[in-house]
């Protein structure tokens, strides 16, 4: 038996990746904390429960790795899984990482290095997800309810990327073990975009007036905590906006085109596809 174990298989990227792989005739095992009973190839997987690692890996030869979310230090949980994956004979392991390194997250670089040291280890460093503009993300909730984007990032730009393009890029690496791969790819959209530009595009494409409300980093951290994020992660995520404002995250790449054969979606296309999300 062979196939791809998709951790986070019910999430923004994982769900699309499973569909792409299965459409291509590749077996994809959906790993999540609450597996769907109707899917015969869904299995329970919980980063906090190492006893779920072995059954999830059994019979698989490739892995899509989504580290624990909302954690500034995921390595202690991921490291034992990497050891077990190596013992299981995994031939390609593609991790979805971030182009943005959270402040006070010292293990992020080490985790990427450990993945790249695995047989067939690849790290996809994705920029900000366009799907953050969709509910239930707090950014999207504020747009829908209040017609505003609250940000501490000023006019700073980010290479926003559609999760569908991330999934397609991962699928290109996981569907065929014969595909040559580098150990690192920066995954972005076609250009950098600020929050004021995003507001203008949503307004133009949907007719919904969206404005930008500029807030402080401290106010953003408090808003993240109020939405239910762990305090340490909320503070780190708010601090990222300082880096965006200072221009440190304004980077784009051609990796999606290189891996999939087509350019990444622009934000205007993404908005047209989801226009119903922001209209009342």
From TrEMBL:
Gene3D superfamilies: NAD(P)-binding Rossmann-like Domain, UDP-galactose 4-epimerase, domain 1
Segments passing through the bilayer: none
SUPFAM superfamilies linked: NAD(P)-binding Rossmann-fold domains
InterPro entries named in the record: Ergot_Alk_Oxidoreductase, NAD(P)-bd_dom, NAD(P)-bd_dom_sf
A Pfam match: NAD_binding_10
Segments forming domain NAD(P)-binding: 8-176
Name under which the protein is recorded: NAD(P)H-binding protein
């Amino acid at each position: 038996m062979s196939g791809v174990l998709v951790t986070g298989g019910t999430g923004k990227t994982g769900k699309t990746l499973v569909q792409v792989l299965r459409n291509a005739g590749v077996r994809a095992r959906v790993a999540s904390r609450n597996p769907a009973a109707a899917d015969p190839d869904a299995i329970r997987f919980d980063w906090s429960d190492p006893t779920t690692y072995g059954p999830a890996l059994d019979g698989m030869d490739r892995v899509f790795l989504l580290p624990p979310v909302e954690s500034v230090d995921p390595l202690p949980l991921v490291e034992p899984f990497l050891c077990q994956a190596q013992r299981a004979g995994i031939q390609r392991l593609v991790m979805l990482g971030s182009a943005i390194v959270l402040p006070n997250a010292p293990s992020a670089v080490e985790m990427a290095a450990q993945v790249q040291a695995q047989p067939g280890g690849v790290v996809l460093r994705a920029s900000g997800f366009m799907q953050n503009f969709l509910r239930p993300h707090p950014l999207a909730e504020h747009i829908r309810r209040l017609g505003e984007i609250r940000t501490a990032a000023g006019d700073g730009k980010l290479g926003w990327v559609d999760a569908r393009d991330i999934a397609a890029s991962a699928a290109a690496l996981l569907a065929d073990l014969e595909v040559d791969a580098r150990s690192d790819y920066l995954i972005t959209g076609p250009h950098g975009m600020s929050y004021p530009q995003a507001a203008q595009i949503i307004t133009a494409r949907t007719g919904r007036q969206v404005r930008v409300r500029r807030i402080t980093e401290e106010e953003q951290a408090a808003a993240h905590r109020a939405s239910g994020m762990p305090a340490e992660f909320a503070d780190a995520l708010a601090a990222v906006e300082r880096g965006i404002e200072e221009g440190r995250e304004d980077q784009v790449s051609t990796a999606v085109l290189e891996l999939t054969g087509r350019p990444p979606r622009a934000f205007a296309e993404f908005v047209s596809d989801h226009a119903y999300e922001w209209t009342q």
